[in-house]
UniProtKB/TrEMBL annotation:
Cytochrome oxidase subunit II copper A binding domain segment(s): 92-225
Physiological role: Component of the cytochrome c oxidase, the last enzyme in the mitochondrial electron transport chain which drives oxidative phosphorylation. The respiratory chain contains 3 multisubunit complexes succinate dehydrogenase (complex II, CII), ubiquinol-cytochrome c oxidoreductase (cytochrome b-c1 complex, complex III, CIII) and cytochrome c oxidase (complex IV, CIV), that cooperate to transfer electrons derived from NADH and succinate to molecular oxygen, creating an electrochemical gradient over the inner membrane that drives transmembrane transport and the ATP synthase.
GO molecular function, one term: oxidoreductase activity
Keyword match Secreted: no
InterPro entries, sorted: CcO_II (IPR045187), CcO_II-like_C (IPR002429), CcO_II_C (IPR034210), Copper_CuA (IPR001505), Cupredoxin (IPR008972), Cyt_c_oxidase_su2 (IPR014222), Cyt_c_oxidase_su2_TM_dom (IPR011759), Cyt_c_oxidase_su2_TM_sf (IPR036257)
Residue ranges of every copy of the Cytochrome oxidase subunit II transmembrane region profile domain listed in the record: 1-91
Origin species: Globicephala macrorhynchus
Cofactor(s) demanded: Cu cation
Record's protein name: Cytochrome c oxidase subunit 2
Cited PANTHER family: CYTOCHROME C OXIDASE SUBUNIT 2 (PTHR22888:SF9), CYTOCHROME C OXIDASE, SUBUNIT II (PTHR22888)
């Protein structure tokens, strides 16, 4: 999760988030180079009175400043499209979980099990134990197996919500009457925190998401104890 005064993105815990981090660095480097070039040209124009008459009305210069931006846009668009298709791809999920947004809590249903569902409410600040995070802890965590493809079905029962977990590169809108889906795969076990990312009313800030990614044998023990 994020720490105070953090400037960058959270550490990646899924292949999609790793790709998003690489694309972020790729696009940021292009922006940095363009900004440096523009700043250099502006500084040059302000500090010198010399004028090169041949470049003020040259066909070659116009060709360069037309073609070069197009090439740069292609360099940004191609990796972006690749990641978009990767995020929409769903390959034989091992588990399906349905997340329903409510005002103001989440409910989860493991559709591969006959009767495995529960509500997930934020723990009030007065009930927190030492070491727990304010406004981020819940009474029932969503437990999932690590290194397995999981399909998330996301919807809402009242207003617009958004199910977002930054470390996994996930952010999917929960729309009443519509079932959105996304793929979740974690490369390492751990606790991953998220929050509703769509303003949904007065308690929008109080419906966190906590994913506990555990090895498969631990998940099987947990699911057996919940049934």
């Amino acid at each position: 999760m994020a720490y105070p005064f953090q400037l960058g993105l959270q550490d990646a815990a899924s292949p999609v988030m790793e790709e998003l981090l690489q694309f972020h660095d790729h696009a940021l480097m292009i922006i940095f180079l363009i900004s440096s070039l523009v700043l250099y040209i502006i500084t040059l124009m302000l500090t010198t009175k010399l004028t090169h008459t041949n470049t003020m009305d040259a066909q070659e210069v116009e060709t360069i400043w037309t073609v070069l931006p197009a090439v740069i846009l292609i360099m940004i668009a191609l990796p972006s499209l690749r990641i978009l298709y990767m995020m929409d791809e769903i390959n034989n999920p091992s588990l399906t979980v349905k997340a329903m947004g409510h005002q103001w809590y989440w409910s989860y249903e493991y559709t591969d099990y006959e009767d495995l569902n529960f509500d997930s409410y934020m723990i009030p600040t007065s009930d927190l134990k030492p070491g727990e995070l304010r406004l981020l802890e819940v009474d029932n965590r969503m437990v999932l197996p690590v290194q397995m493809t999981i399909r998330m079905l996301i919807s809402s029962e009242d207003v617009l919500h958004s199910w977002a977990v930054p470390s996994l590169g996930l952010k999917t809108d929960a729309v009443p009457g519509r079932l959105n889906q996304t793929t979740l795969t974690s490369t390492r076990p751990g606790l991953f925190y998220g929050q509703c990312s769509e303003i949904c009313g007065s308690n929008h800030s109080f419906m966190p998401i906590v994913l506990e990614l555990v090895p498969l044998e631990n998940f099987e023990k947990w699911s057996a104890s919940m049934l």
